[in-house]
Specification:
Layout (H helix, E strand, L loop, with lengths): L15 H21 L6 H8 L3 H7 L3 H25 L5 H18 L3 H6 L4 H22 L11 H13 L11
Helix pairs in contact: 1-2, 1-4, 2-3, 4-5, 4-7, 5-8, 7-8
Length: 181
């Protein structure tokens, strides 16, 4: 879980065994969400899947919402990392950059096809902000990787054109509470 986006009440593990236990809980949370959706998601179901007690989860997280936030943060971090790695190894040319970006997005969403919609809907304000930060990060990564091929973009505002291409892959940004997306 990325420290810069972590929930302030989250208690990060200090020891290696505790970090492994946290990863086991987060993987179990992903599994519960992937197989049963948000409707079946309970702390008890996660504890059972992870092979830990419910109390062990509550010692780390204040509740179900904080656990969801931690999983969302981890998955968005994986998305950001996956896109950045794909763009670093992209074939030369604008086509290669856009193809690498598109494949990285498709790969991430296909591995978590049931989880992302559940995590991105009905969020608290800080959850929306984290989603917007991830969206901005991957759009910036695309713009930076495509910069050497700017002459191949036939729009006056090249950065805006790249953001539009990124949105075509990611969909519209999530609506923040009190604002229409």
């Amino acid at each position: 879980m990325s420290q810069q986006h972590a929930d302030p009440a989250f208690r990060p593990p200090q020891q290696a065994r505790s970090r492994m236990s946290l990863q086991k809980v987060l993987a179990a949370t992903e599994h519960v969400l992937a197989t049963g959706g948000i409707e079946e998601f309970t702390v008890a179901a996660v504890a059972k899947q992870a092979g830990v007690s419910v109390g062990a989860i509550y010692r780390r997280f204040t509740g179900k919402e904080q656990l969801l936030h931690a999983v969302k943060d981890q998955l968005l971090g994986q998305l950001e990392t996956g896109v950045a790695e794909a763009l670093r190894s992209a074939e030369s040319g604008l086509d290669g950059v856009v193809a690498a970006f598109t494949h990285a997005m498709a790969r991430t969403f296909s591995h978590h096809d049931r989880i992302f919609p559940d995590l991105l809907s009905g969020q608290r304000t800080e959850g929306v902000e984290r989603g917007l930060q991830a969206l901005a990060a991957i759009q910036d990564a695309l713009a930076e990787a495509a910069e050497p091929y700017g002459d191949d973009i036939r729009r006056a505002d090249r950065r805006l054109a790249l953001r539009a291409a990124a949105r075509a892959c990611t969909g519209p940004p999530p609506a923040t509470p009190g604002r229409m997306g």
